[in-house]
Amino acid sequence: MIINQVTLPCRNYDESVQFYRTLGLRLIVDSPPRYARFETDSGSTLSVHAVERSDGAADIASTSDTVIYFEVDNVDLTVRKLEHRGLEFDDAPVDQAWLWREAYIRDPAGNWLCIYHAGDNRRFPPWRVASDEL
Fold first, then answer.
1. Read out DSSP for 90-104?
2. Would you tell me how many other CB atoms lie within 10 Å of the CB of residue 56?
3. Percent composition of the chain: helix, strand, coil (DSSP 3-state, to 5)
4. Cα–Cα distance between 134 and 23 in angstroms, integer?
5. Is 55 left (phi over 0), alpha (psi -120 to 50) or beta?
6. Tens of pLDDT along 91-116?
7. How many CB atoms within 10 Å of residue 130?
8. What is the DSSP letter of 123?
9. Which residues pair with 27 in a beta bridge?
10. pTM for this one?
């Protein structure tokens, strides 16, 4: 099983498209005012879909604590580049106890994104379970 596509709700289509382009994703589907798909360097995709209330106002039914993770080689350098492009991070890069370096930012709809580097520790942390046969 491979996860290679995530779709996030958005309130403001144009603002969200600009945010993800500024983040460095390539826009590959643009169907305003409701749907856009982006591609990462690795070929995985992320989409935004505008959500509206019955009165036509943009809204998101509920908030979520879901976090989308984007792994990079150098978190600090990536954050500096994105800040130079005008993005504002909620949390600066920090080394976590689980051996990942992470920085957090919210997209225009309030969805959490984590720019991180885990390397081998993502799949093979020192505390990895020896075997979990299905």
1. SEEEEE-TTS-EEEE
2. 7
3. 20, 35, 45
4. 37
5. alpha
6. 999 999 999 999 999 999 999 999 99
7. 4
8. T
9. 38
10. 0.81
